[in-house]
Design a protein that fits this description.
mainly alpha, membrane, transport, 480 residues, transmembrane helix, single chain, Growth Hormone, Chain: A, 22 helices, 0% strand
Length: 480
């Protein structure tokens, strides 16, 4: 539990720095609301983590893996990536070029996601049952949410000081994010591994520099191509992207529905099921057959309300007249305590209650947290009222998140923990994050009140799925 508290802390620190904090930073530099919404698409990267998750199951990081093992080796590399990307964001904090800001934000999201893939795979290997998963998931989320609060609150309080501003905020969080690296590096070797610690560390650092440079070059090239395509088709801050985004979000469901009849008939020796690249994903659809579509529809809806609210809640609060320091104070002790209580209750519920009941209660409290922003908008500006709305949001988010992590973990085949959990947790946020990118444009049309009423209602929309998903059972193993 102590280990997963630390790993959760490592992954949680950078998250707000490429989401909520970045949104406020861009707003302070006069970036249009619609463009703020577009930056929410940086958070799409974790959705596609299944594309590189099999690499983390199959390969070791040179040097690091020889001494610390596969999982810790990738975690060490990811922490170096997080640190360098955040320092780069600090050095470009003027946002003079939004393309450069987006480049380093994407790199920060990529390495944060890589850290989560490795940590999630290790957690599922260590704790394959609901009873064991509950405490580990709670510890992981306690660390994660503690770090998110520390980063969100600390960064805003630092940024509000003229002598520090946004550069100081990002440098401070980068330094904090690097602290777990020496702790893990001083840890004992993985079982069956050994050799010289110093040699492994030096070799790993050299390999990490090469990998980080290659990742930066590839990201820059892909980003340049995407911006060129967007400019070529005339996408601007005034473009209504909601309709094409909805169409795009439906394509994965259509593709999966088309391929399922073929997948369910595959025998144990079929190349698609034995493939290292696609086998883990084919296995999920083979095990759950047509029930897989229902499961994926449910997980896509369950956290949608929280995701939609994430990027635009802070700009709304700032627009109500609250300062960065007031928002930062609300995101400190108030958010931390309420989030940790929510996570603890959610982890306990997932371990002790029927899963459908735990999921339903989590959805209700997540919806209440979103409705709290509507309530706040119609109150006189007061820091105490901001604390109430923040506490409601963090409590509901924490409770629903803890239950959801355990639920997704139980859907995974223990043979493919990293790849299948990456696929499920990534797919769960694909539709919400696609829609979140159009959130700025939507708010410009319907206003903040209606936006947060919709986001809360979407959280409740997951509840009618529960009797149906409870009936979905995995097929028996056929010897593959």
């Amino acid at each position: 539990m102590a280990l997963y508290l630390l790993l959760g802390f490592s992954a949680g620190l950078p998250f707000y720095m490429f989401s909520t904090v970045l949104t406020l930073r861009l707003q302070a530099h006069g970036v249009a609301l619609a463009v703020l919404g577009f930056f929410a698409w940086v958070q799409l990267l974790p959705t596609f983590k299944f594309l590189w998750a099999p690499l983390l199951d199959r390969f070791d990081v040179p040097g690091f893996g020889r001494f610390w093992g596969k999982r810790r080796g990738w975690i060490l590399l990811a922490q170096l990536g997080i640190f360098t990307a955040m320092v780069a964001m600090a050095l470009t904090a003027s946002d003079a070029s939004l393309a450069v800001t987006a480049l380093f934000a994407v790199l920060l999201a990529f390495w944060t996601t890589t850290l989560e893939i490795a940590a999630d795979a290790w957690r599922i290997e260590l704790a394959p049952t609901a009873e064991a998963q509950g405490p580990l998931a709670a510890a992981n989320l306690w660390g994660y949410r503690t770090a998110m609060v520390a980063a969100g609150s600390g960064a805003l309080l630092i940024a509000d000081q003229p002598e520090w501003s946004w550069t100081g905020a990002y440098l401070a969080i980068a330094a904090a994010a690097f602290l777990p690296f020496p702790i893990l590096a001083l840890g004992r070797p993985a079982q069956g591994h050994g050799g010289g610690r110093g040699t492994a560390l030096v070799t790993g650092l050299i390999a990490s520099v090469a990998i980080l440079l290659a990742a930066t070059a590839v990201t820059a090239a892909v980003g340049w191509a995407l911006l060129a395509v967007a400019a070529g088709v005339g996408v601007t801050a005034q473009t209504n992207v909601l309709t094409p985004v909805l169409v795009l979000a439906m394509l994965p469901f259509v593709a999966m529905a088309a391929g399922l009849p073929w997948i369910v008939r595959l025998g144990p020796g079929a190349p698609a099921r034995r493939s290292a690249a696609v086998g883990p994903y084919v296995d999920f659809f083979w095990r759950y057959a047509f029930g897989a579509l229902l499961l994926l529809a449910f997980v896509s809806v369950y956290r949608m309300g929280d995701v939609l609210a994430l990027n635009l809640s802070k700009p709304m609060i700032k627009g109500l007249g609250y300062s960065l320091s007031q928002i930062g104070r609300a995101d400190s002790v108030v958010a931390l305590v309420s989030s940790m209580v929510g996570v603890g209750l959610g982890g306990w519920m997932a371990a002790k209650w029927p899963m459908s009941l735990a999921l339903a209660v989590g959805a209700v409290f997540a919806a209440l947290g979103n409705f709290g922003f509507v309530w706040l908008a119609h109150q006189p500006t007061g820091e105490g009222l901001l604390y109430v709305a923040t506490a409601a949001d963090q409590f509901g988010n924490g409770m629903a998140g803890a239950v959801f992590v355990v639920y997704l973990s139980l859907l995974v085949n223990p043979r493919y923990p990293g790849a299948q959990y990456a696929f499920l947790s990534g797919f769960a946020f694909l539709l919400p994050r696609l829609l979140s990118g159009a959130g700025g444009s939507l708010v410009e049309r319907i206003g903040y009140d209606n936006f947060f009423l919709i986001s809360g209602a979407v959280s409740l929309a997951a509840i009618p799925f529960l009797p149906l998903v409870a009936r979905v059972q995995a097929r028996a193993d056929d010897g593959h």
